[in-house]
Each structure stands twice: as structure tokens, then as C-alpha cells.
Amino acid sequence: MSPPPNGWPGRASCISASIRCGPGPEGKVNALVHKACLDLDITHIESLCNLEALLGKGQFTFIGLPMKWRGGTASPIRAVAVFDI
User: Fold this and answer.
1) Which of 18, 20, 49, 83, CA to CA, is 20 to 30 A from 76?
2) d(Cα 36, Cα 2) in Å, to the nearest integer?
């Protein structure tokens, strides 16, 4: 992924974006994508694992429970899929 052109996805009323399920690439482009999401107030969720366990289970509500992290712009989360709400 490269930095969003002309403010997209912010213009598209996007509130959350999950980019990948594994470690991200090092370097300037990755940092620019993270900064673009931060500037647009888009929650950036990545490095989720075991997503294959959700395949075929139907719709669910995603809940991300963050750790308290002083002075940071990110933290690990406990990702939860809740069915039948």
C-alpha cells in the first residue's frame, strides 16, 4: 500500500483500516501510510493472526481492547470477534 491519494480513505468516511496480517515492511513508505492514517483519524489495526478461524462463521462485531500506553500513538490490543449481538 502506498500513502492515500488526495485524502482517501478519509474522504470515504473510513474509520478503521486493517492493512495486513503479518509484519510490515520497514522503511519510508510504511511510515507514510501510518502517518496518513493518523492524520485522517483512521484507526490502524494490523498484525492480526488466526483470522482463518473466522472464515465461514458469519458476520461478527470486531472489538479491539487496547493496553494503556503512556505517551504513545499505538499499543498492542486484544482482538475479539463477537457473534450474535
Assistant:
1) 83
2) 10
